[in-house]
Amino acid sequence: MKWDRSAWTRGRVLAGLAVVTAGLLAFHRVVPNSVGHVGSLLEQFLPWFGLVVVVLLVLALLRRSAVTLVALLLPVAAWTYLCGGLLLPGKSPGAHDLVVVQHNVSDENADPAGTARTLAGAQPDLIALEELVPAALPGYAKVLAPHYPYHAVRGTVGLWSKHPLTGTRTVDIKPREITESWERGLRAAVHTPHGEIAVYVAHLPSVRVGASGLGSTRRDESARMLGRALAAEKLKPVILLGDLNSTVDDRGLTPLTSRMNTAERGFAFSFPAAFPVARIDQVMARSATVTHIRTLPETGSDHLPVAARISLGR
Description:
The chain is α+β, with helices and mostly antiparallel strands and 314 residues long. It is 29% helix and 25% strand. The chain has helices at 12-26, 38-43, 49-63, 66-71, 73-83, 112-120, 137-144, 217-232, 254-257; strands at 97-104, 126-130, 150-154, 157-161, 165-170, 185-192, 195-203, 208-210, 213-215, 238-243, 281-286, 289-295, 306-311. The strands form 3 sheets. The protein has a 6-stranded mixed β-sheet, with no helix packed on it. It has a 5-stranded mixed β-sheet with strand order 5-6-7-10-11, with no helix packed on it.
């Protein structure tokens, strides 16, 4: 393929798109959220900007545009900084690691027992579930009981554990606009062989994308309430498991991500199960490290389960 001097003048529009892509990646926090929560909407899909870079690269090669190829170095660098580490292999399991599973099982799940078997198949220490409904609860409990004798349920969220639980209580994360009965948060102390840890299970309000943008006001309020509860927690370490209805890049979760670390390795897109485009099911930790996260096989839910390894760093 021959390149002539015009290669530096062709494809200026493509080069401009490459620069814009780099700017959105590097400075996504400055995109305003005042109208339609546009900034939060953008942050749901930051990893997919890598696909935009690939498309621009192909077009640059077809156009034989040297200026575009040079410009593409900017979004490549920005994407690598934001997301590249997630592609690296996970660290080897350590002696003080815990394996945890997080899953929104769906209140319409027709196979609770099968779902429970899938989750238990990962052999985790802890299993957190959301959208538990009374009719399905016995199905989960029966399958999980032999290997997870300790469990707690508050409203529609639950925690199953191989290790004893104490201090279980409801965590109030209900937005003010919701007047009906609404329990979606719990806290328990888990007595592991490596020491006592606090575990929170939460299901933040759903968001909707419409003509007015991203409807996340309730979710953001609930995240602030949960953030205050985590800030007041006296135990160390702390693990948060939940359907947070957002990616960890979304500024709406800043009350949580500013206090907790997130997965160092793995994308684990969990929603929607039929074609996952984002991970909204999260595992976070404080005074511990989420070393790797992955998805588990599809269940009867519209979410995929995620399994994470947590190093307690003892």
